[in-house]
Request: fold
Amino acid sequence: MLALTGLTKSLPGGRVLFSGLDLSIAAGEFVAVMGESGVGKSTLLNVIAGLDTADRGEVVIDGTALSGLDDDGRTLLRRDRIGFVFQAFHVLPHLSLLRNVALPLVLAHADPAGALGKAGALLDAVGLGGRGDDYPRQLSGGELQRVAIARALVHRPALILADEPTGNLDPETSDRIMALLITQAREAGAAALIVTHSEKAAAAADRSLMLTHDGLVARGA
Reply:
C-alpha cells in the first residue's frame, strides 16, 4: 500500500535530515515512527503526502508513484486516498465540527446528507457526539485533535498519516484514539503510519521504528 525507496531529504543550507530511507507498509498494517526532535519525522509525513518533495527517492501509494503526478494529481491523491492528521490540527474555524469532519467527502462530491451522517458517526467515535453544531473556537486543544482525527478517517482512506495523534490527549482518550486508528486501518484495509513521542502509542503498533539520519531502523536494533 505504501512503498518508500531511497528517500533523501535535506534542509535549505544542506543539512541532511535523512538519507536512503526505505519502507514498505502493507494494507491493514499499523506502523509507528519515533525519533529525536529535528530528525525529520513531520517532514517525512509531508513528503509521503506530496506536500513536500524529497531530494531523491520515490514514494508509491496504492500503486501510484508521486513522481509521476503534477500538483493537481497530488492534490487529488491526497483528497481521495490519504487521511492526514496534522500536529497543528488545521481545523477550519468558520465551519462547524460536523462540516469540518464531512469536508473530505464534500470535496469528493459525495451525497451531502450521507456525508453529514458519516461525519456524525465519526464524531461519536472520537467522543464528541452531540457537538456537531459547535465551532472550533469552543473546543480545547485535545478536542480539536479529535476533530482532526475524525476528519482524516471519514472517507476511509487507503493511507492514514498521523503526526503526534495523541499528543494533546489525556491517557484514557489517547488509548481510545489509538484503538480507533488501528481498527479503522484494519477494517478499511488501509496502511497507517504515525510519528509519535509516546512509547505507549508506539507499543500499540504492529511495528515500531526509529528515524535516524541514516534512515529507518527497527526499535532496539
User: Anything to note?
Assistant: Residues 8 and 190 are 25 Å apart (CA to CA).
